């Protein structure tokens, strides 16, 4: 963008308020101020955006398209201002006319089109792609409702719709009706032989959906590059309106882009989800192929200009859909279409949990996407034929796409692509050795690792202005554009004035969070206590319950001996449970009741506080992460593919309390064993239990009185109002043999927590570790991660 002055900004800002809302600056609402600023930002980048679009076409740049069912950007105002290099100028200009930029920031609603780490990672990549100058665009769905809004009522999670999208649309998007395409679902299809021997698909009774793209700006950091996140919305096609005569029919169409993850416990819900996936994939790919066609290059070489990334299994239909478009719409023969498709496609696996690897019932698949069903059947048939006689038939049976009337989407993505990556070193190893080992036998060359990363500007400069200013003072401003310069802090670890400056920044951030807690929950938090934080989706493998068990132990210790010396602790939780995940919801109830129990017990003398923060989302994370002293990353080893909040916490000067799981291992390698606190079984120990079937939680319970006392607290009335939930949890731990090994890891966990309490008393040594963590956090930048994708997988830079 061109050079901007404060005066120019103020003038256009006021004029825009007049044009859009017919108000003077001093009458406008925060929402009006916010939208006006957003609109100006879009105007500032418009020429860069257009230039970007044109140069990709003109220079025929190879482009990557990142297909993801989730994107979780949170708020965009600050990121956009920062990346444009006008944050300070705009903040000052607004202050000059009595507008507080923070009020505008508050007015923006979180764009929460995702669930957790998967979607947030996609958004970090959207920030990093233009920043490294790579032609990489997102493709997703413009859900009208984001992930549910969580309220806690009587300790229970209640889910409310998250109507994030204002009726005028998001200020960051541009609707592009002229780029709309039609997507066909349902009906039947047969192949009619043509004179030249080719088979032409003839469709009957199909339903047509009109897919309209909304392009959301993605601004690179200080480099004039603007990319696109293309989100698809559904509309009723006027041409086919007779297909949808009743209101119910129409509503059903509109619902396709209403919700992220519709409840899929019924067949109807599953159908909706399958339609969503196909809708996004088909609309995206039709447009991509059409713009490639404009280059007048051979269709069978589309891989030279286009890379398509399948982020987790949800967009895996990209493989057969590209085949369909190439063959049916552009007349490419099967073998050529297959060869290029495999080179276009790549896939990231984000989890070892088998329930998350999607499988579709063949009947449903055939009903909704009959042509795709045919193509998948053919891919599967050819795969079996190709490998027959070359490898053990068992391997073929277990790696083929269609098995027992189910379509295995991960298998489709692996077979139909050229790259499969895991998201942390350990995770990739586990894919190779265990989860996908038979694919590794067939395609060893496809496997690679890309450890996750985070958009460091958001998680430092935006989320933690206090720390950022301190870093400027200590090591200069270079770190703002080159995060690796944080390593300059290595020279300052033991300097006591530096240590106390970091301490003061942390205390100020803790105060800010404490103010929020006071305002929202009316609980007073002592900021000299250790702020011990576990924020992430609620899942049994993440073991929020292990944290709870430790809190119970501390409570019992304090009750038994009220004079006990203990470093005061504040335990902070934030977590959403999937609506149908009963156990997770019980854990939320337990945490809330435990919080009520300890927070109002004056005999504990403020040594123990527990808070559950409602509606954890990106914005809340930006408040919580900078205020944490301890980052809880305590999943059962081998289960957390990577984790990304672990990286955010370390960058903001929290010490990590962790199992050797996911990216925790790489954090340990980065900071050294003395600067992280590791406990519990490693992956080999966990796997040894799986192999030997020798785990016995009841034996631990029977033989360890401390554990017995803690576990019994779930059922002996210690925690009020949790009769039902307490029994459910007790049963999971004892009657059902504690699937995630909480009991085995408990003793070590509690000991390491005691070590942390002692360490915190030694401020110098604590702060040296804190600074060491910040100094080494640069390697988890998503700019670097995405550079790996761009070079090794997509070949776009
Ligand atoms: N839940 C993993 O569990 C990982 C993110 C991003 C997850 C995390 O450990 O950091 O992906 N997996 O790679 C997932 O969504 C479907 O699988 C996650 O967010």
TrEMBL record:
Family to which the UniProt record says this protein belongs: Belongs to the glycogen phosphorylase family.
Statement: the UniProt record of this protein carries the keyword Transferase: yes
EC assignment: 2.4.1.1
Function statement: Phosphorylase is an important allosteric enzyme in carbohydrate metabolism. Enzymes from different sources differ in their regulatory mechanisms and in their natural substrates. However, all known phosphorylases share catalytic and structural properties.
Record field: catalytic activity: [(1->4)-alpha-D-glucosyl](n) + phosphate = [(1->4)-alpha-D-glucosyl](n-1) + alpha-D-glucose 1-phosphate
Keyword Chloroplast: no
Cofactor(s) the protein needs: pyridoxal 5'-phosphate
Gene3D superfamilies: Glycogen Phosphorylase B (3.40.50.2000)
Species whose genome carries this gene: Pseudolactococcus paracarnosus
Domain of life: Bacteria
Name this protein carries in UniProt: Alpha-1,4 glucan phosphorylase
Enzyme class, spelled out: transferase
UniProtKB keywords: Carbohydrate metabolism, Glycosyltransferase, Pyridoxal phosphate, Transferase
């Amino acid at each position: 963008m061109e050079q901007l002055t404060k005066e120019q900004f103020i003038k256009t800002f006021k004029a825009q308020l007049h044009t859009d809302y017919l108000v003077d600056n001093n009458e406008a609402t925060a929402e009006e101020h916010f939208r006006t600023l957003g609109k100006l930002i879009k105007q500032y980048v418009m020429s860069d955006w257009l230039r970007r679009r044109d140069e990709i076409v003109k220079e025929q740049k190879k482009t990557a398209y990142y297909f993801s069912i989730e994107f979780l950007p949170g708020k965009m105002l600050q990121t956009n201002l920062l990346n444009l290099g006008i944050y300070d100028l705009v903040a000052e200009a607004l202050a000059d006319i009595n507008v507080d930029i923070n009020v505008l920031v508050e007015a923006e609603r979180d764009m929460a089109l995702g669930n957790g780490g998967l979607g947030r990672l996609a958004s970090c990549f959207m920030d990093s792609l233009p920043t490294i100058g790579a032609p990489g665009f997102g493709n997703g769905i413009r859900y009208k409702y984001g992930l549910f809004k969580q309220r806690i009522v009587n300790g229970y999670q209640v889910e409310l719709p998250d109507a994030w999208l204002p009726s005028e649309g998001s200020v960051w998007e541009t609707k592009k009706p002229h780029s709309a395409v039609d997507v066909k679902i349902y009906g039947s299809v047969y192949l009619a032989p043509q004179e030249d021997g080719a088979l032409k698909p003839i469709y009957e009774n199909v339903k047509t959906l009109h897919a309209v793209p909304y392009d959301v700006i993605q601004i690179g950091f200080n480099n004039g590059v603007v990319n696109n996140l293309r989100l698809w919305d559904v509309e009723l096609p006027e041409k086919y309106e007779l297909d949808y005569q009743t209101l119910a029919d129409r509503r059903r169409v509109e619902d396709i882009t209403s919700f992220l993850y519709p409840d899929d416990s019924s067949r109807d819900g599953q159908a909706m989800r399958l339609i969503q996936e196909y809708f996004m994939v088909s609309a995206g790919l039709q447009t991509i192929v059409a713009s490639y066609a404009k280059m007048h290059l051979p269709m069978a070489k589309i891989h030279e200009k286009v890379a398509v990334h399948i982020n987790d299994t949800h967009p895996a239909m990209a493989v057969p859909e590209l085949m369909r478009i190439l063959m049916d719409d552009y007349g490419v023969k099967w073998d050529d279409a297959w060869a290029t498709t495999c080179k276009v496609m790549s896939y990231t696996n984000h989890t070892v949990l088998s329930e998350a690897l999607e499988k579709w019932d063949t009947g449903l698949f055939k009903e909704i996407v009959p042509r795709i069903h045919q193509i998948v059947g053919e891919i599967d048939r050819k795969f079996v034929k190709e490998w027959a006689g070359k490898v053990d038939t068992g391997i073929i049976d277990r790696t083929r796409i269609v098995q027992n009337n189910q379509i295995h989407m991960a298998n489709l993505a692996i077979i139909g692509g050229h790259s499969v990556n895991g998201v942390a070193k350990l995770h990739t190893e586990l894919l190779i050795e265990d989860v996908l080992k038979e694919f590794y036998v067939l395609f060893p060359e496809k496997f690679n690792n890309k450890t996750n990363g985070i958009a460091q500007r958001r998680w430092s400069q935006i989320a933690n202005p206090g720390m950022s200013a301190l870093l400027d003072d200590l090591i200069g401003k270079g770190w703002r554009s080159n995060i690796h310069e944080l390593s300059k802090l290595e020279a300052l670890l033991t300097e006591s004035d530096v240590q106390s400056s970091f301490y003061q920044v942390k205390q100020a951030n803790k105060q800010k969070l404490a103010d929020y807690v006071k305002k929202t929950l009316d609980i007073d938090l002592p900021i000299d206590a250790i702020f011990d934080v576990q924020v992430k989706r609620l899942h049994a493998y993440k073991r929020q319950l292990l944290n709870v068990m430790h809190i119970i132990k501390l409570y019992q210790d304090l009750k038994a001996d009220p004079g006990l010396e203990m470093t005061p602790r504040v335990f902070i939780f934030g977590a959403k449970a999937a609506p149908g995940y009963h156990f997770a919801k019980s854990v939320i109830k337990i945490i809330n009741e435990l919080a009520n129990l300890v927070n109002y017990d004056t005999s504990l003398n403020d040594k123990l506080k527990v808070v559950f923060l409602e509606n954890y989302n990106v914005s809340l994370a930006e408040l919580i992460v900078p205020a944490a002293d301890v980052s809880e990353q305590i999943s059962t080893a081998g289960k957390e593919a990577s984790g990304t909040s672990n990286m955010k916490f370390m960058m903001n000067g929290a010490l990590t309390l962790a199992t050797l799981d996911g990216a925790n291992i790489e954090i340990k390698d980065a900071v050294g064993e003395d600067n992280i606190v590791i406990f519990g079984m490693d992956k080999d120990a966990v796997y040894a239990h799986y192999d030997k079937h020798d785990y016995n939680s009841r034996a631990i319970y029977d033989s360890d009185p401390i554990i017995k006392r803690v576990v019994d607290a779930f059922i002996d009335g210690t925690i009020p109002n949790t009769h039902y939930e307490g029994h459910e949890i007790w049963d999971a731990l004892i009657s059902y043999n504690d699937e995630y090994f909480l009991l085995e890891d408990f003793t070590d966990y509690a000991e390491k927590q005691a070590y942390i309490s002692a360490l915190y008393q030694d401020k110098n040594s604590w702060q040296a570790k804190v600074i060491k963590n910040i100094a080494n956090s640069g390697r988890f930048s998503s700019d670097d991660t995405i550079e790996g994708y761009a070079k090794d997988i997509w070949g776009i830079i």
